[in-house]
Structure formats: C-alpha cells, structure tokens
Design goal:
Blueprint (H helix, E strand, L loop, with lengths): L1 H17 L13 E3 L1 H4 L9 E6 L3 E3 L5 E5 L2 E2 L6 E3 L11 E4 L9 E6 L3 E4 L3 E5 L2 E2 L5 E4 L1 E2 L8 E4 L5 E2 L3 E6 L3 E4 L3 E5 L3 E3 L4 E4 L10 E6 L9 E6 L3 E4 L3 E4 L5 E2 L4 E4 L39 H35 L1 H13 L3
Antiparallel strand pairs: 1-2, 2-4, 3-6, 4-5, 7-8, 8-10, 9-12, 10-11, 13-15, 14-16, 16-18, 17-20, 18-19, 21-22, 22-24, 23-26, 24-25
C-alpha cells in the first residue's frame, strides 16, 4: 500500500512538471495585423500557430506571416509588408501626368494639359489598394464661343466658334472712338481676352484760358487726340504746358495752363541831401535876413511842399486884393472924375 501511494504521487508530480506554459497575444510589426480568425482569441496555449497578414495597401515582399507558441515564446515573425505600387496611370494625349510623390499606395499624381487644351475630368489621381483611383482625365482642344456685342461697334470675323489663339477685331461706327483693345484672342478657359472695348463719343470743350490766344493746332470740334497750342497775351507769362491733347475721357491732357501777369521790377530813386556846416560865430538874425534854410528841419521834402503851398496861397490873396482895389478905383472915376485927377496930382507932387 505504501509503495503504490508513492508511485501515484511521483506520476502526478511528473505530469505537472511536463505541462508547458502558453503565450501572450502576439504583436506584429508595422503595416500588418493578425488574420481575422485569430483576432478574437484570448488565450494562446503552447503549440498553437497563428498568422499575420499585411494591411490594406501593403503586400508581402518576402517571408511567412505564421508564428508558433513554444513553451510561452512565439517563433520569429519574418513577414515583410511594403506599400503596393500602382505603376503608370497611362498615357495622356495632349497632356502630362506628374508623379511628384511617387506611384505607391497613398501617393498623388497631378495632370496638366498642353497649351491650347482644356482638362476634362479630375486633375488629381490617388494610388489606392487596387491601383489608381478615378478615371484618367482627357485634354480637349480649346474653343471659344462668339464674344459679346458692343454698343456702337462691331467685330469680325463672325463665326459659330473659334479655335485656340484665333483673334477677332473690333471697330466703332460713326464718330465714336474705341476705348480699350481692338484685338481679342481665344484663350484658356474658352474665353476671349482681354475684355471687349467700349465705343464712346469723344469731344473736348473749347479751352477756356484767360488772357491766352490760340496759336496752333486743331479747330473745333475737338475729337480724340486733337491737339491745340496756346500762348499768353503780352504782359502775361504762361504756367503749365502750352500744347494739349484731347484724351479718351473728353478732357484736355495734361491740363489747361494759366496766364499770370508779368511782374515788373522797378528801382527806387534815392535822393541824397548834403548839408554843409560852417564854423563862423553866431549872429543875431533879423526878419529881413531869414531864409527857409534857417528854419528847423521838419522833415525834408515835407517842408519844401509846405513852402510851395504857402507861396501859391500868398499869390492868390494878392491877386484878389488887386482886383478889388482896381474895381473900387474904377467906380470912383465914373462917379467923380476930378477926384481921380487930384489923387494923380498928389502922387506926382510926392515924387522927389
């Protein structure tokens, strides 16, 4: 009995020793994951084999994705996952495909058309898991519809459509002037460039320049690019540009000049007064020897004018008194002639 118990215990101990340890959840390298059938497993007992697969957009470039758990350790994973290549997107007639980023999964390519062609479709292509996404666009030759008509003007030639780089020309009718480019070209986007011109009536007004006269140039009416030249009258100076041109806005360019009076410069006349001083002894002056030069200085020229007015006044008073005396004597002679003779006799006797 004792021997049998010993054998049983030894067997159980050996069984416990021989039982191997399981593995933890395996982890792959970048761009790969466990296959779907192994993702849901929570335990990985000793001896189990699982497999990894490359992610979407990646492919196996060598090695196996299978690993095995052995006594708690996974065998080496040698799977090599690299991005898939989309290769060329194809040939594009009248255009170019640019692979600036490359041709592998996730890369982008761009498409441009040659001059004179318009792109129809997507300009960008993306490399996907199954190749280039979207359809390859096409490049179609550019055509332009007829341009818009303008008021008071026409264009030629008139057609249903125009090829790339084909030109048309605008002209104005009547006395109207074309403002803008008269030549338009069928350009990118199927549109004529530049914008159509405008036909407008240009007439500048008569130049209104005070103290100026017409010298040369056009006569009214003054149409576009008419030129006139003006000059100032005598005694005036011109400021600005003498020749003007009628511009597209019915304005004189560069603007009307002006005529300003010429400034006359005069030199002031200076009168110099010389004073002579003598060193003789002072003498008493009587009224008979008094001269204007003996008077105190009262302002030079002002004193001279004062004496002149005084002299004129004295002469006028003397003339009036003489007239009065003559008139009285004439009356006395008419009333009493003998009195006049007596006065003459007395005057003669009084003469020595």
């Amino acid at each position: 009995m004792g021997g049998a118990s010993f054998l049983l215990l030894s067997s159980l101990s050996l069984a416990v020793t021989v039982q191997a340890q399981g593995c933890t959840t395996p982890v792959g390298r970048s761009n790969m994951n466990l296959k779907d059938e192994y993702i849901s497993l929570k335990e990985f007992p000793d001896g189990i084999t699982v497999a990894f697969a490359c992610n979407v957009g990646y492919e196996n470039r060598g090695g196996s994705g299978k690993i095995t758990c052995a006594n708690g350790v996974w065998s080496p994973l040698i799977l090599n996952c690299q991005r898939k290549s989309c290769g060329s997107a194809g040939e594009l007639e009248n255009g170019v495909i640019h692979y600036d980023e490359g041709v592998e999964f996730g890369d982008k390519a761009t498409v441009t058309c040659n001059q004179g062609y318009d792109l129809v479709g997507d300009r960008e292509l993306f490399c996907g898991d199954q190749g280039w996404l979207n359809r390859l666009p096409v490049c179609e030759v550019i055509k332009c519809n007829p341009p818009s008509e303008i008021l008071n003007g026409d264009f030629s030639p008139v057609k249903e459509s125009y090829a790339y780089n084909e030109i048309i020309k605008y002209t104005c009718t009547g006395d109207n002037t074309l403002n803008g480019s008269n030549v338009l070209s069928c350009s990118d986007g199927g549109k004529f460039k530049p914008d159509p011109p405008i036909c407008t009536r240009v007439e500048c007004p008569e130049p209104d320049i005070k103290y100026a006269i017409w010298k040369d140039g056009s006569r009214p009416p003054y149409r576009y690019k008419s030129t006139v030249t003006y000059e100032c009258q005598k005694g005036f100076s011109l400021k600005g540009v003498a020749t003007m041109t009628c511009d597209i806005n019915s304005q004189w360019s560069p603007g009307l000049p002006t005529c300003t009076p010429v400034e006359v410069t005069t030199k002031a006349t200076t009168t110099t007064t010389t004073t002579t001083t003598t060193t003789t002894a002072p003498m008493d002056k009587t009224p008979d020897t008094y001269t204007p030069s003996d008077a105190p200085d009262s302002g030079g020229d002002n004193s001279a004018w004062g004496y002149a007015f005084l002299g004129v006044g004295v002469a006028v008073v003397a003339f009036i008194i003489g007239k009065i005396v003559h008139s009285q004597m004439k009356k006395r002679a008419m009333n009493d002639p003998t009195s006049l003779e007596d006065e003459d006799t007395e005057q003669k006797n009084s003469i020595p």
